[in-house]
Amino acid sequence: MATSIDDPGLWTPLPLFERRRRFWVSLVAIALIALIVRVLYAALWGWHLTNAFNDVFFYRGVAHSLAQGMGFQNTYLINPSAHPPMFPIVLSLTYFAKLSTYGEQLIFVAVIETVTVVVVGLVGAQIQGERVGLLAAAIGAIYPGFWLPGSQVMSEPLAMLVVAVLTAVTYAFVRRPTTIRAVGIGVLCAVAALTRSELILLVPLVAWPIIWFRRTIATPTRLRMIAIATVAALFVVTPWTAFISAVHRKPELLSTQMGATLAWSNCMYTYSGPLVGYWSGACIAPAYGQPFPGNAALTSQAESYAFSHISGWPFVIFAREGRVWGFYRPAQQAQLNHNNDHWNLGVAQAETWCLYLVIAFGVVGTVVLRRRRVPLSPLLGVVLLVVITVGLFYGDPRFRASSEVALVLLAAVGLDTVVAAVVGAVSTKATRTTDPTPAA
Hints:
Blueprint: H1 21-46, H2 56-67, H3 73-78, H4 86-96, H5 102-128, H6 130-142, H7 144-147, H8 156-175, H9 179-193, H10 202-212, H11 219-248, H12 258-263, H13 268-271, H14 295-307, H15 313-325, H16 330-341, H17 345-371, H18 377-392, H19 404-434
C-alpha cells in the first residue's frame, strides 16, 4: 500500500501511469476483448436499427447539422426536448470522417466505451494496484451494464468516459492537491454536465467533498480550492446556458427537457398500474392537431399532479429506484428496455443478474476501502447522484450508466479481496494437511 506524500500514516493513490510493461500488455488485451464484445453486439443486434427512436434522432440530427456548419440554433428551436451539446459535438466527428450510417456510428460509440474500459483499469490500479486495475477493466469489458448503454448512439457512453476521467483526476488530487488539479475537477464536472444535465450534481457531490476532506491542507486553502473548482465549472457551463436561453428567449440551464421529463413521469399512468415508477408517453401526448406543450406548461402540469398525489410518493420512489437497481419488477423492466431502447431481451435479463453480483462485490469493496481510509466521494458521490436523479424523475437502467464506473471499481476491489481470502484459506489448509511435523 502506498503512503501519503503529506503524511506517512494516510492512504494515498498510486501514480496513474507508472505501471509495469506486463500491466500495459494485459490492459491492451482486455481492451481488445471489450471492443470485440461491443462490435459483435452492434453487428448482431443493433446494426439494422434506424435512428427514429428515443433521443437518437435528435443526437444524430444535431451532429449532422454541426458537421454541415449550420450550428445548434435551428435544431434547438424546433425540438421540444433539446439535450446538452457535448455528445452531438463529439458525434459530429463521424460526419466529418464520412461515417454517417447508424452502424458506423455504433462502432464509434463502441470505441468510446473501450477507452472507458482502459481508463477504469488505470483508476483501479491507482486505487489498489495493478491486479485490481486489471480486474476492473475485465469486469468493465464483459459486464453488460457497462456496455448496454452504448448499444445505441446516445450520450451515456460519453458520460461514462468523462466520469471515469474525473475519478482519475480526483484521486490524483488526493495524491497531490494542487490548484491546477482543482481546476481540472471543476472543468470535468462541467463537461459531464454538458453531456448529461443531471451530472451538474457532480460539483457538490464529488468536487466539494474531495477537496474539503483533505485535512492535510489548511482550511482557507481548501475553501479557496472549492471556490476555484466551482468557478471553473461555471466558466465552462455559462456560455452554453447563455446560448440556449437566448435561443429560446427564456432562462434555461443545460437543456430544455426538464418539463417533458417531469411530465411523462408524473401522471396517473406512472403512479399506479403496470408502469408505476417508469415513464409513459401518454402523460404528455397532445391532442390530435394541437401543438406540443411548452417546457413551462409541462413542468406546471407535472408539479400539479405530483403535489396533489403526495401520498403516492413513497411507493413511486421505491418503484423508481427498484427499476434502476434491479429489485422491482426486473423481468418487466428488461422487457421495457427491449421495447423502448431496443436492447436484446436476453442480454437485458442477464444484465440484471450481473448487476446483483457487481453490487454484492461492490459492498465488500466499499467496506475494504473504507477501512483503508480511502476517500469514497469520487465513487459513492456518483452513485448518490443516480439515486437522487432517479427519485426525482423516473426509473430506467440507462440512468445508472453514470455510476457504472464506480460500481465496477468497487466490485473489482471486493472481488480481489474475496479471491485473496479464499486462496489464502485454501493455501493455509493445504499447508496444515501436508505438514510432516508431528504434533507435540
